[in-house]
Amino acid sequence: MGKVTGFLSWPRQLAPTRDIGERVGDFREFVGSRDPKLSSEQGGRCMDCGTPFCQAGCPLGNLIPDWNELIYRNRWHEAYERLAATNDFPEFTGRVCPAPCEHACVLAINDQPITIEQNEKEIAERAFAEGWIVARRVRRKSGRKVAIVGSGPAGLAAASQLIAAGHDVSVFEADQAAGGLLRFGIPDFKLEKSVVQRRLRLMEREGVAFRCGVRVGVDVSWGQLRDEFDALLIAIGAQKPRELQIPGRELDGVVLAMDYLTQQNRRVAGLPLQGAELLATDKDVIILGGGDTGSDCLGTALRQGAKRVTQIEILPEPPLQRAADNPWPQWARVLQTSSSQKEGGERRFALRTERLSGDQQGRLQKLHAVRVELRDGQLVAVPDGELSLSVELLILAMGFVSPFTDTLTAELDLMLDGRGNVKVDERFQTNLAGVFAAGDAQRGQSLVVWAIADGRRAAQSIDRFLAGR
Questions:
Q1: Is 183:469 a contact under the CB 8 Å cutoff?
Q2: Cβ contacts of residue 255 below 8 Å, gap of 6+?
Q3: Please, what are the domains in the chain?
Q4: Of the residues 29, 115, 201, 424, which has the fewest C-beta atoms closer than 10 A?
């Protein structure tokens, strides 16, 4: 371990952030970097537990105690090598992962956990700055071709692994630029797109071919890809949103979260906007959904100059401390405040939206809700709990239910699971030989870190399928 009493000597200390009054004025990243000495100390807080629950809590199985000790000893290059052994994109997860590893950290039983996510980012950024991250050269090519549909974290992770294994990899992306959720879903203030582009350029130098602006199922058929390539990976994400089935949904001013976030990301990047302009400027904004997507919408609305922003969650407010049925090392179901929620806006809990109303021109004006409480696992309306809220822009951030599979199932005899996701076996292979699926397309809506983990494991299965071992 680093320092035997490190967790007693140094308190948890995150990286500096830009002042809220400054950062809400732009869309640049607001989390800075720590002094290397401070990062070394934070690595030294790690106890190198005999059973590393942090490592078990990480979907990638990152060797967290190893690289914590190495940065404590200022052996940063070795720390990067340990990190890169399990994670293709630490510069992404070091910025946008909700860090289940920190919830599983032994220190989290009665103290503040190790700053694992920030440590990861510091290692990755130092590796780029020092020139340790370079395009890998493949000594032996297999002569096999793999098509990957979707350039989000799952597709990119699979491409990274398969190109290193010597296969020819083509990534098909419907949008005009690669990156998927990383480019168009996550706001720039959390992940600047120069970070994504830096990795994509590196992958291109390694030999990955990105074919953007190609809609599989429209411009090229799924069957054609299966015929032309030796293996096919479906990594299209779970983009079908959970809808709000209430009266007034059709009113002007009700928008889907991903449409809202994508348009702002395109605006920041200087790309052409798609559809009607969606802006929160000088408006009463309500966001339905308290997860990461809803938080991203909140931060975006504040930066667009919304008059007032309210984030509504249907469930009651979580406790400040773990409940008896939520012991460590489970994910802590406690009240958490995101960086965007710290910037402003109001949070309201235990409200169920009943209907929407608008003016004679069909423009949204009111959200009508009822207060609810949890009884025997069911949400029950509170007597006389009706209320109305003024709203001009309602953003639906209630999650996603499944991938869009209409053209996929129409062209391939592909099986889906009971939730509408692509059905796979333990090797990430579908019911069709040589056709695999990874990430949210087969798992359902989940985390970036799970998508990367799935992409890596699917690539291993594809390599075994192609090589026979």
A1: no
A2: 278, 393, 394, 395, 396
A3: 6-129 (1.10.1060.10), 145-239+401-467 (3.50.50.60), 243-398 (3.50.50.60)
A4: 201
- Of the chain, the end-to-end C-alpha distance in Å amounts to 37
Single out the residue of 411, 404, 403 nearest to residue 224, CA to CA: 411
* pLDDT-based confidence at residue 1 (cuts at 50, 70, 90): low
278-314 tens-digit pLDDT: 999 999 999 999 999 999 999 999 999 999 999 999 9
* Tokens encoding 187: 């706001």
Handedness of CA 247, 249, 254, 255 (dihedral sign): positive
Query: To 10 degrees, the CA torsion angle through 324, 327, 333, 335?
Result: 70
Residue 242: count other Cβ atoms within 10 Å of its Cβ.
Answer: 16
* Residue 55, phi-psi category: left (phi > 0), alpha (psi -120 to 50), beta (remainder): alpha
Phi, psi torsion values for 312, nearest 5 degrees: -110, 135
Residue 306: what are its φ and ψ, rounded to 5°? -65, 145
Query: What value does the CA radius of gyration of the chain take, rounded to a whole number of Å?
Result: 23
Burial code (b: 16+ CB inside 10 Å, e: under 16) for 248-278 equals beebebbbbbbbbbbbbbbbbeebeeeeeeb
Could you tell me the two tokens for 65?
A: 């105690």
Cβ(458)–Cβ(159) below 8 Å: no
As a dihedral over the C-alpha atoms of residue 459, residue 465, residue 468, residue 469, rounded to 10 degrees, the angle is 30
Residues of 384-402 as b/e, b for ≥16 C-beta within 10 angstroms?
Answer: eeeeebebbbbbbbbbbbb
Task: State which H helix or E strand residue 348 sits in.
Answer: strand 346-348
Q: How far apart are CA 423 and CA 109, in angstroms?
A: 37
The string of pLDDT tens digits covering residues 145-184 is 999 999 999 999 999 999 999 999 999 999 999 999 999 9
Is-contact 172 147, C-beta < 8 A? yes
